[in-house]
Amino acid sequence: MVVQMAEILIVEDEPSINELIKKNLCLAGHHCTQVFDGDEAIALSGCEKFDLIILDIMLPGADGYEVLEQIRGTPVIFLTAKSELSDKLRGLRRGADDYITKPFQMLELAARVEALLRRTKKTEKYFELDHVRVDFESRMIYADGSPVDCTPKEYELFETLVKNRNIALSREKLLDLVWGFDFEGGTRTVDVHIQRLRAKLRLEKQIATVYKLGYRLEAPL
Ligand code: CA
Q: How many angstroms separate the alpha carbon of residue 14 from the centre of ligand 1?
């Protein structure tokens, strides 16, 4: 399901991966531009406007982090090998970015693209699921019309589930997105907050447990 047609810049030096991404995102209805090194990416993003950039980290010329510094304001999905998943990803600007580890499934990438477009689309002001309504501007959650008393972290966790709805999110991913890369606590923190959210919002079924992985908010498309 395509939320909107987007202009996407693909920055990946491996031609076969670049081509595969392009093919799949074009099939999903997006318009793609391909570049194969970091310097080209910086030059192009300076003169053209993109809705989203898919950015490999290890690139000839400027690397992914250097590119990121030059393209402020455009949402980015990093492509990274698991071994590169380090402190460096602290470079993520909360909310406007995401990452996906190689090797990845095309379906996963397409889902992340849709989620990030949805997240960065300015027009989404609220979201409704059954008796629950989230207002993104006031950062309030209502159940049956009454405000729900949530801590800031509970709110952020629910907003993250909503904006990535129908995508399975691992506990580690949720920790990264909600608590940040430098959070010292363990994944148990996520479980505790999920349990509280389920109880407070009465969304026991909709906030589904994904066996051995994490959680997914199940919402009709
Ligand atoms: Ca590369």
A: 6
Quick: pLDDT tens for 25-77.
988 878 999 999 999 999 998 888 899 999 998 899 999 888 988 887 789 99
What predicted TM-score, i.e. pTM, was given to this entire model? 0.61
CB neighbour list of residue 40: distance below 8 Å, 6 or more residues apart: 11, 61
* Alpha helical stretches, state H, 121-210: 152-163, 171-174, 188-201
- What are the DSSP E strand ranges found in 59-136? 76-81, 97-102, 126-129, 132-135
155 and 139 Cβ atoms separated by less than 8 Å: yes
C-alpha span between 131 and 164 (Å, rounded): 19
* 57 Cα to the center of ligand 1, angstroms: 6
Residue 31, CA distances (Å) to 21, 114, 155 in order: 11, 13, 34
63 contacts: CB under 8 Å, gap ≥ 6: 38, 57
CA 49 – ligand 1 centroid, Å? 23
62 CA distance to ligand 1 centroid (A)?
Answer: 11
